[in-house]
Amino acid sequence: MADITVAGPSNSNQPLLDKTHEGFPETNGTDLVIRSSDGFLFHLHRKYLEATTGSFPGPEFDTHGEVIQLSEPADVLALLFQFVTPARQPHLRGLRFSLLDPLAEAANKYEVFSAMNICENRLMEHTSAYPRQTMMHGLKHDYPLLVARASLSLARAPLLTIIDHLPVHCITPWIEYHEAWKCIFKDVINSCIKDNAHICENCRSSLILWVMDLEATATLATLSSKITQQTPTPSQPRACIAPVDRTSPYSSILTLSRCKQPNEVMILTCRTLQDRIKAVPPFSQFMKGKRQRGT
Ligand SMILES: [Zn+2]
Hints:
The chain is mainly alpha-helical. Helices cover about 50% and strands about 5% of the residues. It has helices spanning about 45-50, 75-80, 95-110, 115-125, 130-140, 145-155, 160-165, 170-195, 200-215, 220-230, 250-255, 260-280, 285, and strands spanning about 5, 20, 30-35, 40-45, 65-70. Strands 1-5-3-4-2 form a 5-stranded mixed β-sheet. It is elongated.
């Protein structure tokens, strides 16, 4: 149940010049008045609020004709209350995040059921630009799909920048999720170090440095793009990078000594990275305690 207060006329914290919001005037049948945090009055029908929401007062809640004070501003309430009137509801397409975010919060706080799903759908479109806010909303109000998508956008962020903002019960799952990602790069670097039969020291060092750079990449989109760009193709195979002194009379012999499989090793490394990244379970599985790390 959301915290709803009835504000008496003598409430000195309220603006002196309340004015009725143009979208919600007093008409025949309106029997409830709500005031926004910035002093706009919304005239509503209790019967609609009772039928479509979980937390707004129904007929049994007597306000003695006084105004109910809410903590949200008028622009948020004006959108929210469109979901509790018998009319076509707003699609919220193109709504800026700075308004969508508090609207979604209010929809869940007051249990305006018809607004909750559409707000979730619209928030899904903002997970790349606002991953932290959308994930926190999903965690707070239990939207696993929103959490899964937003967490992907945060997967490469430094651990401490995330856990400082998480609810306590999410910290251990996030550390495990972060560790699952870390293992990908650790395992690939280990296999580069151990597999010394197919590439020379120059190629191995270069490969390890490249994987370390990938690990430090801030976003999943950039990470995937870097791997794709470096994946050898038949027209652009990976060549050994060992330096050859072209001025030396022995350069042709040195060329023969260069490693033979840098292309195959690079293809295998890129494929392993892509497979392991795809295999990381969504964060929601770590929340459920299913720690199925990629192989
Ligand atoms: Zn080489």
